[in-house]
Amino acid sequence: MTLTYELSEIDSIATALLSKVKSKTLLFYGEMGAGKTTLIKAIAKALGIQDIASSPTFSLVNEYESEHGPVFHFDFYRIEDESEALDMGIEDYLNTNSWKLIEWPQKISKLLDSEVQKLELSVVDKNKRMLKIC
Description:
Layout: E1 2-6, H1 10-20, E2 25-29, H2 36-46, E3 61-66, E4 69-75, H3 82-87, H4 90-94, E5 99-103, E6 117-125, E7 128-133
Helix pairs in contact: 1-2
Keywords: ATP-binding, Cytoplasm, Magnesium, Metal-binding, Nucleotide-binding, tRNA processing
Family: Belongs to the TsaE family.
Protein name: tRNA threonylcarbamoyladenosine biosynthesis protein TsaE
Protein backbone atom coordinates (compact mmCIF):
# COMPACT_ATOMS: atom_id res chain seq x y z
CA MET A 1 0.00 0.00 0.00
CA THR A 2 1.33 3.42 -0.94
CA LEU A 3 0.10 6.78 0.34
CA THR A 4 1.11 10.18 -0.99
CA TYR A 5 0.39 13.04 1.40
CA GLU A 6 0.97 16.72 2.00
CA LEU A 7 2.91 17.56 5.16
CA SER A 8 -0.18 19.40 6.40
CA GLU A 9 -2.01 16.03 6.40
CA ILE A 10 0.55 14.20 8.52
CA ASP A 11 -1.62 13.90 11.65
CA SER A 12 -4.40 12.13 9.75
CA ILE A 13 -1.83 9.94 7.96
CA ALA A 14 -0.34 8.92 11.33
CA THR A 15 -3.77 7.99 12.72
CA ALA A 16 -4.63 6.01 9.57
CA LEU A 17 -1.26 4.27 9.66
CA LEU A 18 -1.77 3.09 13.24
CA SER A 19 -5.04 1.42 12.20
CA LYS A 20 -3.34 -0.42 9.31
CA VAL A 21 -0.09 -1.76 10.75
CA LYS A 22 0.12 -5.34 11.94
CA SER A 23 3.00 -4.89 14.39
CA LYS A 24 3.98 -2.51 17.18
CA THR A 25 7.53 -2.51 15.82
CA LEU A 26 7.63 0.04 13.00
CA LEU A 27 10.76 0.33 10.86
CA PHE A 28 11.26 3.65 9.10
CA TYR A 29 13.38 3.59 5.94
CA GLY A 30 14.22 6.62 3.85
CA GLU A 31 17.00 8.99 3.01
CA MET A 32 17.97 11.87 5.24
CA GLY A 33 15.19 14.47 5.06
CA ALA A 34 12.50 12.04 3.88
CA GLY A 35 10.37 12.78 6.94
CA LYS A 36 10.95 9.79 9.22
CA THR A 37 11.22 11.81 12.43
CA THR A 38 8.33 14.07 11.43
CA LEU A 39 6.06 11.06 10.86
CA ILE A 40 7.21 9.46 14.11
CA LYS A 41 6.31 12.64 16.00
CA ALA A 42 2.84 12.55 14.43
CA ILE A 43 2.45 8.86 15.35
CA ALA A 44 3.51 9.61 18.92
CA LYS A 45 0.95 12.43 19.05
CA ALA A 46 -1.71 10.00 17.76
CA LEU A 47 -0.76 7.65 20.60
CA GLY A 48 -1.40 10.48 23.08
CA ILE A 49 2.18 11.58 23.73
CA GLN A 50 2.56 15.32 24.24
CA ASP A 51 6.26 15.74 25.08
CA ILE A 52 8.13 14.79 21.89
CA ALA A 53 11.26 16.93 21.86
CA SER A 54 13.63 15.57 19.24
CA SER A 55 15.02 12.52 17.55
CA PRO A 56 17.27 10.38 19.76
CA THR A 57 20.21 10.61 17.36
CA PHE A 58 22.74 10.98 20.18
CA SER A 59 21.02 9.00 22.93
CA LEU A 60 19.84 6.23 20.52
CA VAL A 61 16.49 5.89 22.30
CA ASN A 62 13.84 8.15 23.81
CA GLU A 63 11.11 6.69 25.98
CA TYR A 64 7.68 8.29 26.21
CA GLU A 65 4.67 7.37 28.31
CA SER A 66 1.30 7.10 26.65
CA GLU A 67 -2.13 5.78 27.57
CA HIS A 68 -1.02 2.66 25.66
CA GLY A 69 2.09 2.17 27.83
CA PRO A 70 5.67 3.09 26.97
CA VAL A 71 6.62 4.09 23.43
CA PHE A 72 10.26 3.78 22.37
CA HIS A 73 11.74 5.90 19.59
CA PHE A 74 15.11 4.69 18.29
CA ASP A 75 17.49 6.39 15.89
CA PHE A 76 20.42 4.22 14.80
CA TYR A 77 21.88 6.62 12.24
CA ARG A 78 25.10 7.14 14.20
CA ILE A 79 25.94 3.55 15.15
CA GLU A 80 28.80 1.80 13.38
CA ASP A 81 27.71 -1.80 14.00
CA GLU A 82 25.03 -3.84 15.73
CA SER A 83 27.16 -4.38 18.85
CA GLU A 84 26.40 -0.77 19.85
CA ALA A 85 22.67 -1.56 19.79
CA LEU A 86 23.30 -4.71 21.83
CA ASP A 87 25.33 -2.67 24.34
CA MET A 88 22.40 -0.31 24.89
CA GLY A 89 20.04 -3.25 25.51
CA ILE A 90 18.07 -3.35 22.25
CA GLU A 91 17.06 -6.98 22.82
CA ASP A 92 15.22 -6.04 26.01
CA TYR A 93 13.30 -3.32 24.20
CA LEU A 94 12.45 -5.58 21.26
CA ASN A 95 11.05 -8.23 23.59
CA THR A 96 8.41 -5.89 25.02
CA ASN A 97 4.85 -5.48 23.78
CA SER A 98 5.37 -1.71 23.60
CA TRP A 99 5.40 0.47 20.51
CA LYS A 100 8.90 0.62 19.00
CA LEU A 101 9.51 3.26 16.33
CA ILE A 102 12.90 2.66 14.70
CA GLU A 103 14.76 5.01 12.36
CA TRP A 104 17.65 3.58 10.30
CA PRO A 105 16.69 -0.06 11.07
CA GLN A 106 19.06 -1.30 8.35
CA LYS A 107 21.86 -0.69 10.86
CA ILE A 108 20.44 -3.44 13.14
CA SER A 109 18.75 -5.70 10.60
CA LYS A 110 20.23 -8.95 11.98
CA LEU A 111 18.69 -8.19 15.40
CA LEU A 112 15.13 -7.78 14.10
CA ASP A 113 12.67 -10.62 13.76
CA SER A 114 9.99 -10.99 11.13
CA GLU A 115 7.23 -9.52 13.34
CA VAL A 116 7.84 -5.95 12.19
CA GLN A 117 6.15 -3.45 9.90
CA LYS A 118 8.41 -1.86 7.30
CA LEU A 119 7.65 1.68 6.16
CA GLU A 120 9.50 3.39 3.32
CA LEU A 121 9.38 7.18 3.06
CA SER A 122 10.47 9.29 0.12
CA VAL A 123 10.31 12.92 -0.89
CA VAL A 124 7.93 13.80 -3.72
CA ASP A 125 8.52 17.55 -3.40
CA LYS A 126 9.08 20.19 -0.71
CA ASN A 127 5.64 19.68 0.85
CA LYS A 128 4.73 16.15 -0.24
CA ARG A 129 5.90 12.70 0.85
CA MET A 130 5.26 9.15 -0.27
CA LEU A 131 4.79 6.40 2.31
CA LYS A 132 4.96 2.77 1.29
CA ILE A 133 3.66 0.27 3.83
CA CYS A 134 5.52 -2.98 3.12
